[in-house]
């Protein structure tokens, strides 16, 4: 998330009531969680396991719970509760805006777009030429929909990211301030859900077709001309290449990269990166030809044991 107006890291720290370690005149241009950081961004980290990842990331500013050596060109904000302070910042720069009408403020909707009755359109939404949105669909704040897109009935585009901090009293949700970008000629089926980015973009590539009852998690990037069958579930922060086919009930763990032209057969579970141009099957999935051999071996062992 870009924060627009000019803010020094010193001013940010002062707003939080925290101390800066390093040059407090450096300019903060954005706020992002670790998977989508860029130079000029502020990121938070609150566990030693992830210190190196945050400190060595592209982020220029790290909201952290202890003083550590500062990488060159960066500055630290020391906080006993980095998650809470990060949420405080995102709520400051991207506050929740209540909405009482079916179409929000500052939207740009092409004259040729067809919005069926009972569609909810949030604030700052852009809808391109010849878009069709069927009844009951929810289009969240900041969503961009390019031309010739079809959104099925009761689809939910741009709801909160599923991102929580576990605390003794329960779970605190990270405030979502990202959005969804849908490229042209995409189709999204009835009842499917595409979560907003936590602080960046969830993107659906040109020509991709998504069946009914599919879930796409926050900050996931899906390539062009993909095909996802019903009940596919994709966790957050995945990168999926072009021309990928995921058949029914495939599940994908967070942070996975799937190469171009991959096919994953039905009811498979993806727990690791998948190489381009291969067919996968099973849970955990592997190349389909290897997995089939395993099943044959197991079947033969079972039959051999039953004969004894």
UniProtKB/TrEMBL annotation:
Gene Ontology biological process terms from the UniProt entry: lipid A biosynthetic process
Any one annotated GO CC term: membrane
UniProt cross-references to Pfam families, sorted A to Z: Hexapep, Hexapep_2, LpxD
Keyword entries, A-Z: Acyltransferase, Lipid A biosynthesis, Lipid biosynthesis, Lipid metabolism, Repeat, Transferase
Coiled-coil regions listed: none
Domain of life: Bacteria
Domain UDP-3-O-[3-hydroxymyristoyl] glucosamine N-acyltransferase non-repeat region: 27-91
EC number: 2.3.1.191
A GO term for molecular function: N-acyltransferase activity
Protein name as it appears in the record: UDP-3-O-(3-hydroxymyristoyl)glucosamine N-acyltransferase
């Amino acid at each position: 998330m870009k924060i627009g107006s000019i803010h020094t890291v010193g001013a940010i720290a002062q707003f939080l009531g925290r101390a800066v370690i390093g040059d407090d005149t450096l300019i903060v241009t954005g706020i992002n969680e670790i998977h989508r950081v860029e130079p000029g961004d502020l990121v938070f980290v609150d566990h030693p396991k992830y210190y190196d990842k945050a400190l060595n990331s592209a982020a220029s500013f790290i909201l952290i719970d202890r003083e550590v050596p500062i990488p060159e060109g960066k500055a630290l904000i020391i906080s006993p509760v980095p998650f809470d302070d990060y949420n405080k910042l995102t709520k400051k720069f991207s506050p929740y805006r209540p909405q009482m009408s079916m179409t929000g403020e500052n939207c740009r909707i092409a004259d040729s777009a067809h919005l069926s009755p009972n569609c909810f359109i949030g604030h700052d939404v852009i809808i391109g030429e010849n878009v069709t949105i069927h009844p009951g669909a929810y289009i969240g704040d900041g969503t961009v929909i390019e031309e010739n897109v079809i959104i099925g009935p009761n689809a939910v585009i741009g709801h909160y990211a599923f991102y929580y901090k576990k605390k003794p009293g329960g779970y605190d949700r990270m405030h979502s301030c990202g959005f969804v970008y849908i490229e042209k000629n995409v189709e999204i089926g009835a009842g499917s859900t595409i979560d907003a980015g936590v602080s960046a973009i969830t993107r659906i590539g040109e020509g991709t077709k998504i069946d009914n009852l599919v879930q796409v998690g926050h900050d996931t990037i899906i390539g062009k001309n993909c095909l996802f069958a019903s009940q596919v579930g994709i966790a957050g922060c995945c990168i999926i290449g072009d021309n990928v086919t995921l058949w029914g009930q495939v599940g994908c763990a967070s942070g996975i990269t799937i190469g171009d032209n991959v096919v994953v057969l039905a009811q498979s579970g993806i727990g690791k990166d998948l190489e381009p141009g291969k067919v996968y099957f099973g849970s955990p999935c592997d190349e389909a030809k290897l997995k089939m051999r395993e099943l044959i071996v197991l079947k033969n062992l079972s039959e051999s044991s039953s004969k004894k």
